[in-house]
Amino acid sequence: MTEDPAGRLVVTLDLDGVTDKAGLMDRCARDLALPDWFGRNWDALADSLSDPSVWPEGAADRGLLLVVRGWRTYADARPDEWAVAEEVFAEATDRGPGLFVTLGPGGSSKEAADGPG
């Protein structure tokens, strides 16, 4: 975790190798250190992302920048699911101040960087 120029805590959600919803939910639980009660469904993800009480320490006061990287394989394998994931990210961002979600490189860290899109 690092900080961005605006002072927000930066957390990377690394989706490298994820090809389905179950993998996405597992990776969210791991990378975001979500609590054991995280239900691994779309509503639970939206609730967790928009709840500063489950964010990493210090993020509630400073804000949280979530960088989603390695997402292209999942988006290509399950475009309908990926569309829902993008809606969940947008909804969580809109629920209140402090959270910003951005798509980072879409490819694997082993490949050339792939821009968002």
UniProtKB/TrEMBL annotation:
- A Pfam family annotated for this chain is Barstar
Family matches, as InterPro entries: Barstar (IPR000468), Barstar-like_sf (IPR035905)
Bilayer-crossing regions: none
The entry's family comment says: Belongs to the barstar family.
Per the record, the domain of life is Bacteria
Q: Which residues form the Barstar (barnase inhibitor) domain?
A: 10-94
From the Swiss-Prot or TrEMBL record, give the protein name: Barstar family protein
